[in-house]
Model the fold of this input.
Amino acid sequence: MSSPTPFDFFAPCPRGLEAPLAAEFAEIAQRLAGTADAQRFEVGAQVPGGVHFRGGWAAAMAANLHSRIASRVLLKIAERAYRGEQDIYALAAEQPWERWFSANETLRVDLTAIKSPLRSLEFATLRVKDAVCDRLRSVSGARPSIDTAQPDVRVFAFLTATVCTLYLDTSGEPLFKRGWRLDKGAAPLRENLAAGILRLAGWTPGTPLYDPMCGSGTFIAEAAQIALGVAPGVERRFGFEKLKQYDVSAWQTMKVAALDAKRRAGTNKTDLPIFGSDISGDMLEKARANLARAGVPSLWLKQLDARAIVPPTGEPGILVANPPYGERIVVRGPRGEVREPRHASREAGAEAFGRAQPDALDGEFFRAFGDALKQRFTGWRAFVLTPDRALPGQMRLRESAKTPLFNGALECRLFRFDLVSGSVKARPGSQEPQG
Ligand SMILES: C[S@@+](CC[C@H](N)C(=O)[O-])C[C@H]1O[C@@H](n2cnc3c(N)ncnc32)[C@H](O)[C@@H]1O
Done:
Protein backbone atom coordinates (compact mmCIF):
# COMPACT_ATOMS: atom_id res chain seq x y z
CA MET A 1 0.00 0.00 0.00
CA SER A 2 1.38 3.44 -0.81
CA SER A 3 1.16 6.17 1.78
CA PRO A 4 -0.33 9.46 0.63
CA THR A 5 -0.09 10.97 4.12
CA PRO A 6 3.36 11.55 5.51
CA PHE A 7 4.03 10.16 8.96
CA ASP A 8 6.18 11.42 11.80
CA PHE A 9 9.05 9.17 12.76
CA PHE A 10 11.64 9.25 15.51
CA ALA A 11 14.95 7.43 15.20
CA PRO A 12 16.79 6.87 18.48
CA CYS A 13 20.58 6.55 18.29
CA PRO A 14 23.52 6.30 20.70
CA ARG A 15 23.83 9.62 22.53
CA GLY A 16 26.46 11.80 20.90
CA LEU A 17 25.62 10.61 17.38
CA GLU A 18 22.60 12.83 16.69
CA ALA A 19 24.40 15.12 14.22
CA PRO A 20 26.03 12.25 12.27
CA LEU A 21 22.61 10.54 12.12
CA ALA A 22 20.93 13.68 10.76
CA ALA A 23 23.69 13.94 8.11
CA GLU A 24 23.21 10.28 7.23
CA PHE A 25 19.44 10.78 6.91
CA ALA A 26 20.04 13.66 4.50
CA GLU A 27 22.01 11.23 2.31
CA ILE A 28 19.30 8.57 2.56
CA ALA A 29 16.73 11.19 1.55
CA GLN A 30 18.89 11.82 -1.54
CA ARG A 31 18.62 8.13 -2.46
CA LEU A 32 14.87 8.53 -2.68
CA ALA A 33 15.19 11.53 -5.00
CA GLY A 34 13.41 10.79 -8.24
CA THR A 35 10.92 8.41 -6.66
CA ALA A 36 7.35 9.38 -5.85
CA ASP A 37 8.30 9.67 -2.20
CA ALA A 38 11.23 11.97 -2.88
CA GLN A 39 9.52 14.88 -1.24
CA ARG A 40 8.64 12.83 1.77
CA PHE A 41 11.86 12.42 3.71
CA GLU A 42 12.22 15.57 5.70
CA VAL A 43 14.92 15.42 8.30
CA GLY A 44 13.64 17.08 11.46
CA ALA A 45 14.95 18.15 14.83
CA GLN A 46 17.88 16.53 16.61
CA VAL A 47 17.17 15.87 20.27
CA PRO A 48 19.41 14.16 22.82
CA GLY A 49 19.36 10.49 21.81
CA GLY A 50 17.76 10.73 18.37
CA VAL A 51 16.51 12.51 15.28
CA HIS A 52 12.95 13.21 14.14
CA PHE A 53 11.95 12.86 10.52
CA ARG A 54 8.82 12.99 8.46
CA GLY A 55 7.95 10.96 5.42
CA GLY A 56 6.04 8.16 3.75
CA TRP A 57 6.71 4.43 4.03
CA ALA A 58 9.58 4.67 1.57
CA ALA A 59 11.37 6.98 4.00
CA ALA A 60 10.85 4.62 6.94
CA MET A 61 11.90 1.56 4.97
CA ALA A 62 14.96 3.28 3.50
CA ALA A 63 15.96 4.50 6.98
CA ASN A 64 15.70 0.94 8.31
CA LEU A 65 17.63 -0.56 5.41
CA HIS A 66 20.34 2.07 4.98
CA SER A 67 20.90 3.79 8.32
CA ARG A 68 24.09 2.63 10.01
CA ILE A 69 23.68 4.93 12.98
CA ALA A 70 20.00 4.75 14.03
CA SER A 71 19.09 2.19 16.70
CA ARG A 72 15.47 1.97 15.54
CA VAL A 73 12.85 3.76 13.47
CA LEU A 74 9.67 4.50 15.42
CA LEU A 75 6.36 5.59 13.88
CA LYS A 76 4.66 8.22 15.99
CA ILE A 77 1.07 7.21 16.77
CA ALA A 78 -0.14 9.80 19.31
CA GLU A 79 1.02 12.45 21.72
CA ARG A 80 -0.82 14.17 24.59
CA ALA A 81 -0.27 15.79 27.94
CA TYR A 82 -0.74 13.45 30.92
CA ARG A 83 -0.90 13.67 34.67
CA GLY A 84 -1.29 10.09 35.75
CA GLU A 85 -1.45 6.49 34.55
CA GLN A 86 -5.14 6.83 33.74
CA ASP A 87 -4.38 9.53 31.12
CA ILE A 88 -1.77 7.27 29.58
CA TYR A 89 -4.20 4.33 29.52
CA ALA A 90 -6.87 6.50 27.86
CA LEU A 91 -4.47 7.78 25.19
CA ALA A 92 -3.31 4.25 24.33
CA ALA A 93 -6.84 2.81 24.38
CA GLU A 94 -8.09 5.42 21.88
CA GLN A 95 -5.58 4.51 19.18
CA PRO A 96 -6.72 2.33 16.26
CA TRP A 97 -3.98 -0.28 16.75
CA GLU A 98 -6.13 -2.72 14.75
CA ARG A 99 -5.12 -0.81 11.59
CA TRP A 100 -1.55 -1.89 12.13
CA PHE A 101 -1.72 -5.36 13.67
CA SER A 102 -4.17 -7.95 14.93
CA ALA A 103 -4.50 -10.00 18.09
CA ASN A 104 -2.70 -12.83 16.27
CA GLU A 105 0.57 -10.92 16.57
CA THR A 106 2.56 -11.13 19.78
CA LEU A 107 3.26 -7.83 21.54
CA ARG A 108 5.87 -6.17 23.69
CA VAL A 109 5.56 -2.74 25.29
CA ASP A 110 8.54 -0.65 26.45
CA LEU A 111 8.48 2.66 28.22
CA THR A 112 11.18 5.22 28.81
CA ALA A 113 10.82 8.42 30.77
CA ILE A 114 12.69 11.63 31.49
CA LYS A 115 11.63 13.53 34.59
CA SER A 116 8.27 11.77 34.76
CA PRO A 117 6.46 12.39 38.06
CA LEU A 118 4.98 8.86 38.02
CA ARG A 119 5.93 6.64 40.93
CA SER A 120 6.22 3.39 39.00
CA LEU A 121 7.27 3.25 35.37
CA GLU A 122 6.65 -0.49 35.49
CA PHE A 123 3.01 0.14 36.34
CA ALA A 124 2.74 2.76 33.58
CA THR A 125 4.15 0.20 31.11
CA LEU A 126 1.50 -2.31 32.22
CA ARG A 127 -1.23 0.28 31.69
CA VAL A 128 -0.07 0.89 28.11
CA LYS A 129 0.02 -2.86 27.50
CA ASP A 130 -3.48 -3.26 29.00
CA ALA A 131 -4.84 -0.41 26.89
CA VAL A 132 -3.51 -1.86 23.62
CA CYS A 133 -4.80 -5.35 24.50
CA ASP A 134 -8.21 -4.01 25.65
CA ARG A 135 -8.55 -2.01 22.45
CA LEU A 136 -7.88 -5.04 20.26
CA ARG A 137 -10.26 -7.20 22.32
CA SER A 138 -13.03 -4.63 22.02
CA VAL A 139 -12.72 -4.48 18.21
CA SER A 140 -11.83 -8.10 17.44
CA GLY A 141 -12.80 -10.13 20.49
CA ALA A 142 -9.22 -11.34 21.10
CA ARG A 143 -6.20 -10.07 23.03
CA PRO A 144 -2.67 -10.39 21.68
CA SER A 145 -0.22 -12.52 23.66
CA ILE A 146 2.79 -10.87 25.24
CA ASP A 147 6.23 -12.02 24.12
CA THR A 148 9.12 -10.05 25.55
CA ALA A 149 11.83 -12.07 23.78
CA GLN A 150 10.75 -12.16 20.14
CA PRO A 151 7.60 -10.13 19.74
CA ASP A 152 6.00 -9.56 16.35
CA VAL A 153 5.07 -6.01 17.28
CA ARG A 154 6.63 -3.51 19.68
CA VAL A 155 4.96 -0.44 21.11
CA PHE A 156 7.09 2.23 22.76
CA ALA A 157 5.85 4.88 25.16
CA PHE A 158 7.98 7.92 25.94
CA LEU A 159 7.18 10.17 28.88
CA THR A 160 8.52 13.60 29.62
CA ALA A 161 7.44 15.44 32.76
CA THR A 162 4.11 16.32 31.12
CA VAL A 163 3.72 14.65 27.72
CA CYS A 164 3.20 11.03 26.70
CA THR A 165 4.13 9.95 23.16
CA LEU A 166 3.21 6.54 21.76
CA TYR A 167 5.23 4.94 18.98
CA LEU A 168 4.91 1.79 16.92
CA ASP A 169 8.27 0.25 16.15
CA THR A 170 9.12 -0.39 12.49
CA SER A 171 12.52 -2.03 13.08
CA GLY A 172 12.01 -5.16 15.19
CA GLU A 173 15.43 -6.18 16.46
CA PRO A 174 17.57 -3.06 17.07
CA LEU A 175 19.22 -1.87 13.88
CA PHE A 176 22.76 -2.37 15.16
CA LYS A 177 22.03 -6.10 14.82
CA ARG A 178 22.95 -6.36 11.18
CA GLY A 179 22.92 -10.15 11.10
CA TRP A 180 26.59 -10.65 10.18
CA ARG A 181 28.28 -10.41 13.58
CA LEU A 182 27.66 -13.90 14.90
CA ASP A 183 31.21 -14.18 16.24
CA LYS A 184 32.20 -11.68 18.88
CA GLY A 185 34.55 -11.23 21.79
CA ALA A 186 33.85 -10.18 25.37
CA ALA A 187 33.45 -6.45 24.68
CA PRO A 188 32.29 -5.89 21.13
CA LEU A 189 31.49 -2.42 19.94
CA ARG A 190 27.93 -1.80 18.80
CA GLU A 191 27.84 -1.63 15.03
CA ASN A 192 25.96 1.68 14.95
CA LEU A 193 28.44 3.26 17.36
CA ALA A 194 31.32 2.09 15.13
CA ALA A 195 29.61 3.53 12.04
CA GLY A 196 28.90 6.82 13.85
CA ILE A 197 32.54 7.08 14.92
CA LEU A 198 33.69 6.59 11.32
CA ARG A 199 31.48 9.53 10.35
CA LEU A 200 32.61 11.67 13.31
CA ALA A 201 36.19 10.89 12.30
CA GLY A 202 35.47 12.24 8.83
CA TRP A 203 36.53 8.95 7.24
CA THR A 204 35.48 8.46 3.64
CA PRO A 205 36.17 5.48 1.34
CA GLY A 206 39.57 5.77 -0.28
CA THR A 207 41.23 7.12 2.86
CA PRO A 208 43.30 4.41 4.59
CA LEU A 209 41.64 3.12 7.75
CA TYR A 210 43.45 1.01 10.37
CA ASP A 211 42.07 -0.61 13.52
CA PRO A 212 45.03 -2.12 15.44
CA MET A 213 42.76 -3.74 18.09
CA CYS A 214 40.06 -4.83 15.70
CA GLY A 215 38.59 -7.69 17.76
CA SER A 216 35.62 -9.11 15.89
CA GLY A 217 36.13 -6.53 13.16
CA THR A 218 33.27 -4.10 13.73
CA PHE A 219 35.01 -0.91 12.53
CA ILE A 220 36.56 -2.52 9.48
CA ALA A 221 33.41 -4.42 8.46
CA GLU A 222 31.31 -1.26 8.71
CA ALA A 223 33.91 0.69 6.73
CA ALA A 224 34.18 -1.98 4.03
CA GLN A 225 30.39 -2.12 3.66
CA ILE A 226 30.32 1.68 3.30
CA ALA A 227 33.10 1.56 0.68
CA LEU A 228 31.31 -1.15 -1.29
CA GLY A 229 27.80 0.28 -0.96
CA VAL A 230 26.43 -2.70 0.98
CA ALA A 231 23.31 -1.72 2.93
CA PRO A 232 23.64 -2.52 6.66
CA GLY A 233 20.19 -4.12 6.78
CA VAL A 234 20.40 -6.16 3.58
CA GLU A 235 20.41 -9.53 5.33
CA ARG A 236 17.85 -8.92 8.05
CA ARG A 237 14.12 -8.65 8.54
CA PHE A 238 12.32 -5.61 9.92
CA GLY A 239 9.39 -5.06 12.23
CA PHE A 240 7.34 -3.31 9.52
CA GLU A 241 7.20 -6.58 7.58
CA LYS A 242 4.80 -7.84 10.27
CA LEU A 243 2.49 -4.82 10.07
CA LYS A 244 -0.74 -4.77 8.09
CA GLN A 245 0.21 -1.60 6.27
CA TYR A 246 3.47 -0.85 4.57
CA ASP A 247 4.45 -0.29 0.97
CA VAL A 248 5.16 -3.90 -0.06
CA SER A 249 6.08 -3.25 -3.67
CA ALA A 250 8.40 -0.33 -2.85
CA TRP A 251 10.03 -2.57 -0.22
CA GLN A 252 10.60 -5.38 -2.71
CA THR A 253 12.26 -2.97 -5.14
CA MET A 254 14.51 -1.56 -2.39
CA LYS A 255 15.45 -4.99 -1.08
CA VAL A 256 16.27 -6.42 -4.51
CA ALA A 257 18.50 -3.40 -5.26
CA ALA A 258 20.28 -3.89 -1.91
CA LEU A 259 20.81 -7.63 -2.53
CA ASP A 260 22.20 -6.88 -6.01
CA ALA A 261 24.62 -4.34 -4.52
CA LYS A 262 25.80 -6.92 -1.97
CA ARG A 263 26.31 -9.51 -4.71
CA ARG A 264 28.37 -7.05 -6.75
CA ALA A 265 30.43 -6.18 -3.66
CA GLY A 266 31.31 -9.87 -3.22
CA THR A 267 32.92 -9.92 -6.66
CA ASN A 268 34.94 -6.73 -6.04
CA LYS A 269 38.58 -7.36 -6.83
CA THR A 270 39.98 -4.00 -5.78
CA ASP A 271 42.04 -3.97 -2.59
CA LEU A 272 40.31 -1.72 -0.09
CA PRO A 273 42.69 0.40 2.02
CA ILE A 274 41.08 -0.96 5.19
CA PHE A 275 43.32 -2.76 7.65
CA GLY A 276 42.83 -4.62 10.91
CA SER A 277 45.10 -6.27 13.43
CA ASP A 278 44.73 -7.74 16.89
CA ILE A 279 46.97 -9.57 19.29
CA SER A 280 44.53 -12.46 19.47
CA GLY A 281 44.44 -15.06 16.73
CA ASP A 282 41.01 -16.19 17.94
CA MET A 283 39.62 -12.69 17.46
CA LEU A 284 41.05 -12.50 13.95
CA GLU A 285 39.30 -15.77 13.08
CA LYS A 286 36.04 -14.24 14.28
CA ALA A 287 36.71 -11.07 12.31
CA ARG A 288 37.30 -13.13 9.14
CA ALA A 289 34.02 -15.02 9.58
CA ASN A 290 32.14 -11.76 10.24
CA LEU A 291 33.63 -10.04 7.20
CA ALA A 292 32.61 -12.95 4.98
CA ARG A 293 29.02 -12.78 6.28
CA ALA A 294 29.02 -9.00 5.85
CA GLY A 295 29.62 -9.61 2.14
CA VAL A 296 33.00 -7.91 1.95
CA PRO A 297 36.08 -9.43 0.32
CA SER A 298 38.94 -10.45 2.58
CA LEU A 299 40.84 -7.51 4.03
CA TRP A 300 44.40 -7.16 5.32
CA LEU A 301 44.26 -8.77 8.79
CA LYS A 302 47.37 -9.45 10.88
CA GLN A 303 48.14 -10.82 14.33
CA LEU A 304 50.13 -7.99 15.93
CA ASP A 305 50.70 -6.37 19.28
CA ALA A 306 49.39 -2.80 19.06
CA ARG A 307 52.64 -1.59 20.63
CA ALA A 308 54.60 -2.85 17.63
CA ILE A 309 52.44 -1.61 14.80
CA VAL A 310 53.65 0.26 11.74
CA PRO A 311 51.47 1.98 9.14
CA PRO A 312 50.06 -0.71 6.85
CA THR A 313 50.23 1.63 3.87
CA GLY A 314 52.40 4.53 2.66
CA GLU A 315 49.62 7.10 2.58
CA PRO A 316 48.58 8.50 5.97
CA GLY A 317 45.03 7.81 7.02
CA ILE A 318 42.76 7.36 10.00
CA LEU A 319 43.43 4.99 12.87
CA VAL A 320 40.49 3.94 15.04
CA ALA A 321 40.70 1.86 18.18
CA ASN A 322 38.53 0.63 20.99
CA PRO A 323 41.17 -0.71 23.39
CA PRO A 324 40.38 -3.18 26.15
CA TYR A 325 39.25 -1.60 29.35
CA GLY A 326 39.57 -3.01 32.85
CA GLU A 327 40.22 -6.56 31.70
CA ARG A 328 43.10 -8.98 31.47
CA ILE A 329 43.22 -10.95 28.33
CA VAL A 330 44.61 -14.30 27.46
CA VAL A 331 45.89 -14.38 23.96
CA ARG A 332 45.37 -17.39 21.75
CA GLY A 333 47.30 -18.01 18.60
CA PRO A 334 45.78 -19.15 15.34
CA ARG A 335 45.95 -22.79 16.39
CA GLY A 336 44.52 -22.14 19.82
CA GLU A 337 47.78 -22.13 21.79
CA VAL A 338 47.75 -19.75 24.71
CA ARG A 339 50.26 -16.92 24.52
CA GLU A 340 50.51 -13.75 26.50
CA PRO A 341 51.82 -10.47 25.21
CA ARG A 342 55.25 -9.39 26.35
CA HIS A 343 56.48 -5.85 26.58
CA ALA A 344 56.43 -3.93 23.34
CA SER A 345 59.02 -4.79 20.85
CA ARG A 346 60.67 -1.67 19.51
CA GLU A 347 61.29 -3.49 16.25
CA ALA A 348 58.70 -2.06 13.94
CA GLY A 349 56.26 -4.68 12.76
CA ALA A 350 57.47 -7.43 15.08
CA GLU A 351 54.80 -9.87 16.10
CA ALA A 352 55.30 -9.55 19.81
CA PHE A 353 54.40 -12.75 21.54
CA GLY A 354 56.29 -15.00 23.84
CA ARG A 355 57.15 -14.72 27.49
CA ALA A 356 54.34 -14.32 29.98
CA GLN A 357 53.65 -10.73 30.94
CA PRO A 358 50.62 -10.75 33.23
CA ASP A 359 49.70 -7.08 33.34
CA ALA A 360 50.05 -6.36 29.68
CA LEU A 361 47.26 -3.82 29.67
CA ASP A 362 48.52 -1.47 32.31
CA GLY A 363 49.97 2.02 31.93
CA GLU A 364 53.00 0.56 30.21
CA PHE A 365 50.81 -0.75 27.41
CA PHE A 366 49.16 2.59 26.73
CA ARG A 367 52.44 4.45 27.00
CA ALA A 368 54.02 2.11 24.45
CA PHE A 369 50.95 2.35 22.20
CA GLY A 370 51.14 6.15 22.39
CA ASP A 371 54.84 5.99 21.54
CA ALA A 372 54.11 3.78 18.52
CA LEU A 373 51.62 6.37 17.24
CA LYS A 374 53.96 9.29 17.85
CA GLN A 375 57.00 7.63 16.34
CA ARG A 376 55.55 5.81 13.37
CA PHE A 377 52.18 7.30 12.41
CA THR A 378 53.14 10.83 11.43
CA GLY A 379 50.42 12.39 9.35
CA TRP A 380 47.70 10.05 10.64
CA ARG A 381 44.72 11.01 12.77
CA ALA A 382 43.92 8.58 15.57
CA PHE A 383 40.53 8.18 17.26
CA VAL A 384 40.43 6.15 20.45
CA LEU A 385 37.17 5.25 22.20
CA THR A 386 37.42 4.51 25.91
CA PRO A 387 35.52 5.00 29.16
CA ASP A 388 38.88 5.93 30.73
CA ARG A 389 39.24 9.72 30.74
CA ALA A 390 42.87 9.45 31.83
CA LEU A 391 43.85 7.59 28.67
CA PRO A 392 45.55 10.52 26.83
CA GLY A 393 47.73 11.01 29.91
CA GLN A 394 48.63 7.34 29.92
CA MET A 395 49.45 7.50 26.22
CA ARG A 396 51.42 10.70 26.85
CA LEU A 397 49.59 12.40 24.04
CA ARG A 398 47.42 15.47 24.16
CA GLU A 399 44.07 15.05 22.47
CA SER A 400 42.94 17.56 19.82
CA ALA A 401 39.29 16.85 20.59
CA LYS A 402 37.17 14.67 22.83
CA THR A 403 33.55 13.72 22.18
CA PRO A 404 31.30 12.11 24.80
CA LEU A 405 29.65 8.96 23.43
CA PHE A 406 27.73 6.08 24.96
CA ASN A 407 28.52 2.44 24.23
CA GLY A 408 25.23 1.03 25.55
CA ALA A 409 24.99 2.46 29.07
CA LEU A 410 28.76 3.00 29.37
CA GLU A 411 29.81 6.63 29.07
CA CYS A 412 32.90 6.91 26.91
CA ARG A 413 35.05 9.55 25.29
CA LEU A 414 36.24 9.51 21.71
CA PHE A 415 39.70 11.07 21.88
CA ARG A 416 41.20 12.47 18.72
CA PHE A 417 44.96 12.73 18.30
CA ASP A 418 46.39 14.60 15.32
CA LEU A 419 49.73 12.99 14.65
CA VAL A 420 50.88 15.80 12.43
CA SER A 421 54.59 15.98 11.73
CA GLY A 422 56.41 18.20 14.18
CA SER A 423 53.25 19.20 15.98
CA VAL A 424 52.22 16.15 17.99
CA LYS A 425 51.26 17.59 21.30
CA ALA A 426 53.28 15.43 23.59
CA ARG A 427 52.77 15.38 27.32
CA PRO A 428 55.69 15.87 29.68
CA GLY A 429 57.83 12.80 30.04
CA SER A 430 56.91 11.32 26.68
CA GLN A 431 59.31 10.51 23.92
CA GLU A 432 59.35 13.15 21.22
CA PRO A 433 58.01 12.16 17.84
CA GLN A 434 60.55 11.31 15.20
CA GLY A 435 60.56 12.60 11.66
C1 LIG B 1 37.35 -3.93 23.39
S1 LIG B 1 38.03 -5.11 22.30
C2 LIG B 1 37.76 -4.42 20.72
C3 LIG B 1 36.44 -4.83 20.22
C4 LIG B 1 36.25 -4.54 18.76
N1 LIG B 1 36.14 -3.12 18.50
C5 LIG B 1 35.02 -5.30 18.30
O1 LIG B 1 34.06 -4.66 17.95
O2 LIG B 1 35.01 -6.53 18.37
C6 LIG B 1 39.75 -4.91 22.48
C7 LIG B 1 40.60 -5.77 21.58
O3 LIG B 1 41.95 -5.47 21.83
C8 LIG B 1 42.72 -6.65 21.65
N2 LIG B 1 44.01 -6.47 22.34
C9 LIG B 1 44.30 -6.57 23.66
N3 LIG B 1 45.61 -6.33 23.87
C10 LIG B 1 46.17 -6.06 22.69
C11 LIG B 1 47.47 -5.74 22.25
N4 LIG B 1 48.49 -5.67 23.10
N5 LIG B 1 47.66 -5.51 20.92
C12 LIG B 1 46.64 -5.59 20.04
N6 LIG B 1 45.39 -5.93 20.39
C13 LIG B 1 45.15 -6.15 21.70
C14 LIG B 1 41.84 -7.73 22.24
O4 LIG B 1 42.21 -8.99 21.72
C15 LIG B 1 40.44 -7.27 21.81
O5 LIG B 1 40.08 -7.90 20.61
Observations:
- The longest strand covers residues 410-418.
- The CA atoms of residues 155 and 168 lie 5 Å apart.
- The chain is about 30% helix and 20% strand.
- The mean pLDDT is 88.
